[in-house]
Amino acid sequence: MPKVNEVMNPDRSAATRSLVAGGCCFLLCIVLGLAPWWLERASLLRAVEFAYYIALAQMWNLLAGYAGLMSIGQQMFVGIGAYVLYAMVIKLGWGVLPALLLAGSAALVIALPAALLLFRLRGAQFAIGSWVLAESVMLLVTRSEDLGGASGLSLPATAVRAMAASADERIQLIWWLALLLAIGSTLLVFLWLRSRQGLALTALRDNETAAAGLGVDTRRVKFAVYLAVAGMSGLIGALIFLNKLRISPGAAFSMSDWTASVIFIVVIGGIGSIEGPLLGALIFFALREVFAAYGAWYQILLGATAILVMIKAPRGVWGLLSARWGWSWLSVRRLLKN
Amino acid sequence: MSDWLGIVVQGILTGGLYALFAAGLSMSFGILRIVNLAHGDLIVLACFVALMVVETLGLPALTSFIFVVPAMFALGYALQQGLLNRVIGNGELPPLLTTFGLSIVIQNSLLELFSADNRKLQAGAIEVQSLDLLPGVTVGWLPLLMFLCAVVLLALLHALFFRTRLGRAFRAAADDPRTLSHMGYEPKRIYALAMGTAMAVCAVAAVFMAVRTQFTPLSGPARLLFAFEAVIIGGMGSIWGTFLGALLLGVAQAVGAALDPVLETLAGHVLFFILLLLRPQGLIAKGK
């Protein structure tokens, strides 16, 4: 038996570190919120992309890393959200902000029948099933004349002008929305894990059979996570294509852009932790800056890195760091009192 | 009327090819408990191996089996021993993500080596020869040969599973992997042999695919989805269930394509989801 204070010391330092990390995060958010005043336009656009990838990565991590739902069909919800936004703005003349909210809600509602169907498939079979469903939705959209078929739609100039007076102001608005989604999705995972349901979720991550044995209603937990992640992904998708001003089925339902890249971010950074996706996004964007010009070689490098991580460090780079130095900045661990 | 009959027959023949794609995937599901996301890309890799064999040795396309099958068996064996055996046993996530990475690596390596151009193997006269199967229903010799090869190969696989020592080890691995070592087998070697066998079956399918349709380095994912749909429609763990699932998928796609070329894959997906809703255990579920 270790002595009480031997157990307590690392705990208290973890709690302090969480507090410090929380404070730093808060300051960081303010600094980032002011980014339009200290970043030029090209960098701000890159930051927008960085922010929505963080949001997507947090969501996929919640889904796969915690709830064990290894979906490779999340592009479905990105695409649905994006198309709902375009349809509302173009066909019904809605404003951008209400259309964004509706896009998220629509993705959430569609996730309900999708879950009922896909949850019949277990584990890894669910993965491919979710991909088949995403492909099917893409094919349906491609066939729809109203949604512009295979060539897609553009946001009309009037709608773009209604969003903001100038291009700079529009990018500012999009940056704040993207930042909000990145922070919001990170907070969602953080608060969810610290809630009572989070305990069930952590148990599920560590061992599904044991969690069920301890009385966790695994199906209900998975259901809730699947729906929430779908809604957020729809919202993120709508924002992504609001930024791009153009949409086509191939781009909106792209497996490689909205799922594969996100999986790389989460796996390399560290699956099953909140810090992992944040670190993974940094690594992913750094690799892209350096190697993107090499095209296929860059993709090979990413794939090989993911394989290497799975063999050598299944908890990713963050797993290595936190094991080496005992780091835990956004702690969601529960510690026994006394 | 005979138009539609012809379309259904075409679909059944194509289904033979899907059955071979699916048999390999079903083996990795059942025996290795791996959902191999690189399955389709490995099939396309085999197509390119066939292409290289034909181009460098000048062999007739359909005889490239002699090289492609052993090459893919060796690749499957090595892949399992060198890579996949190291990530199994810790839940489903590590093998899934490893094969996902592998899929991206194979696709992009093929792109780098062969570019994104459409490729096809030329098999000569057999591609255009046909016979009248029934009054008004004409089928090509090539699809017919492909279908017959698929049936023979599946029968051989069935015999391998139920008549040989190795097959018994495969079935033991599928039912309860822990008993394998008690039975005196080295589990990882059995897994490697199973992956090798699965890849050898895919190699045969790949040669036919390369002769029948155009392919690019990015043709893999669609093949993975077809194989997966056939396995789930037919029911896990039954070779003939998978065969039936593949034939139904082939027919659904042929009928869809006849209505509108865009509907070809979608019709297959719709059939898959209908059966998932009505009969999630598959048409021929293995009784346990």
TrEMBL record, chain B:
Keywords: Amino-acid transport, Cell membrane, Membrane, Transmembrane, Transmembrane helix, Transport. The keyword Endoplasmic reticulum does not apply. Pfam families: BPD_transp_2. It is found in: Cell membrane. The chain crosses the membrane at residues 6-27, 141-162, 190-212, 224-249, 261-278. Its main location: membrane. The keyword Transmembrane applies. It comes from the Bacteria. InterPro entries: ABC_transp_permease, BCAA_transport_permease. Coiled coil: none annotated. Belongs to the binding-protein-dependent transport system permease family. LivHM subfamily. This is Branched-chain amino acid ABC transporter permease. It comes from Uliginosibacterium sediminicola.
